[in-house]
Specification:
- By secondary structure, the chain is of the alpha+beta class.
- Helix content is 30%, strand content 42%.
- It is built from three helices and seven strands.
- Helix 2 (23-32) packs across helix 3 (133-163).
Length: 166
């Protein structure tokens, strides 16, 4: 199942990425996203590439119809940002059922003019579970949409704070 979430911000792409990878912003973001635990396993700036691997466990209510399949909501996120293109490849690997789950996506930040940018998170998720796979895919996409809307609100608040007169 394909997905795409788009938000616009009053900040240029470089400023967006600087904010995105800043520790205070990350702490606020993951708190607001109700991530129970977050462990950064790798964060390397290789010049034109930034690699980050993080293990996360969200506070997530699993519907009763999916509880027999989803026993653990934890996952590992693999991110590779290409600074030259302002695109980050994102791969998610769940703690359980790795062989039945596929998610490939990209996080693209493009300029919209002076001091503005557009962030799009788009990709495809496939869950290979008989009878429930499609319902679980829809549930995941709905949860991601809600998370990205929350993240957009957090980002707008941080951008506004940065622009406020001191």
């Amino acid at each position: 199942m394909n997905f795409s979430f788009v938000h616009e911000f009053d900040i240029d792409p470089q400023g967006f990425w600087d904010l995105f990878f800043s520790k205070p912003y990350e702490e606020e973001l993951y708190k607001r996203l109700k991530i129970r635990t977050r462990t950064v396993l790798e964060h390397k700036d290789e010049g034109n590439l930034v690699r980050r691997t993080q293990r996360m466990e969200p506070e997530l209510a699993v519907p009763s119809w999916a509880a027999s399949v989803i026993k653990d909501t934890g996952y590992t996120e693999y991110d590779v940002l290409d600074k030259a293109t302002s695109k980050m490849a994102v791969r998610i690997e769940p703690m359980l059922m790795k062989e039945r789950f596929q998610m490939n996506s990209s996080f693209n930040v493009t300029p919209l003019g002076p001091g503005r940018c557009r962030r799009e998170f788009a990709g495809e998720v496939k869950i290979l579970v008989p009878l429930l796979g499609g319902r679980i895919e829809k549930l995941m996409i709905d949860q991601m949409r809600e998370a990205y809307d929350t993240a957009a609100q957090v980002t707008r608040e941080w951008v506004a704070k940065q622009k406020a007169p001191r």
